[in-house]
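Let us work through a complete example step by step.
Step 1: write down the sequence.
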Amino acid sequence: MEFLGTTQLASYCGTKKRCLFPDLAPTSTTKDTYQSYYLPGYRCLSSWRPNLLHKVVSVPPSSDKQFNPTGRPPTILPASRSTLHARYSTRDWHHANMVQLKGSEASRYSAGRLNADSMRLIQDKDQLTCQMQEDSRRNLGERISNIDFWRSELVYELECLLKETQALETAKKRLECAADEMQGPLKIALECLYHREKRKGIDLVHDDVEKNLIKEVDVFKDCQEILTKLAQKISKQLGINRDAQHALEQDLSDKNSAHFIDEKCFNLRNTSDSINFYHGVEKADGTVSVPATWAKFSEDNIRCSQHARANSVKLREEAEVGLESTSEEMWNHFISTNLAFNNRIAEVADAKNKLQAQLAKILQEIFQTEDTIMLLERSIKAKEYPLKVAQTRLEGRTKRPNIELCRDAPQFQLVTEVYTIDDTLHTLKRRLQEARDTLQMLILNKSKLEQEISVKANSFFIDKKCMDMRKVFPSTPRLIGYT
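Step 2: predict the structure and record it as tokens.
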């Protein structure tokens, strides 16, 4: 029995003794079998194992007495051959290892296939679930769009109906008040001139309105007889208009509720707090309409309202014809003055709208500039962290020992990165200052535009007020029936 890794002074490191089995011719030595391994920085040493193991000592087979130089008892090996024959052979050992490895490899391959199939299954089901959820969300979005379309149509029709009803009520009042009240035209003209003196700045002009108001000094004729019947027809039509208005408002209210619910459902996500399980809800069907009947219901309401508006327009036209036929002499003065008022109001409104449009653009630019400033500030703030990272890396690499302080590719890249980020920060800061200067200029222009819009709004208000005054004064009821 050989022992490796011992010193030469150990008592069990003598020469090999003959045992019960004959010695075999040595084919190799321990030195040939084991290759020396040397740690870096150490010399080639082989003293870790005894030199006695490098040799094979043979004893002549004819010697009856075993060689024992130390005088110690020899090492006793198992002498029973049955014990040796009961052990496994080397072939069995290799075969068992191979079977174990193949079984392990088969199990690993089966587990790998199962894991891959499971991952594909998970991905497929996740994709299917996401696709179904996206389809439902898209359908809800389309439904919301349809509701928005019909809601906008209903709102538009309701606004038109309300305007038409208001205009019809105004026509009725014109017809009723045209036979009751009379006022002198001079007072109307003087009141309008007085109010127009309150205009400010460049709007204090001697325009056509002022000229026509000065001319309007004659007495207006009395109202005519046929206005009462027209007023009765208008009262009946107003009842029809209110019915159509109620239907539109009810439909619009339902659309708003449905829009709120569908929008709430549309905005639900997997992370929403308000989601819950409602088992069996998919089996309940409480619907009362289909998309075709749903759209037809709103379309019928709109058609009914349009029909009522058409009749209202006809009645208002008849009222206008009646008023115009009764007072042709007053018509010329009224038309000329009101035309001048309308033109002037349109001019002021157009100028005001242009200024407001420009103001809106300025406000939009201010908003965008502020947003740009915010984005620039965020970008500057965001660039600080990469700069810190690059500088920290450079600082950390300065601690490399001795020859490791190499100007390698990472060093050049880090230096370039620091300079690039620093240049980017300077550029962004300059652009931030330019954006702030631009913002101040836009705010100054905004202030000027608001001042000019205030002047135009004052003039517009005065002219509209004069027109309203003419609606209630006696000269106006003879033409348009306002009180």
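Step 3: interpret the result. The CA atoms of residues 228 and 382 lie 77 Å apart.
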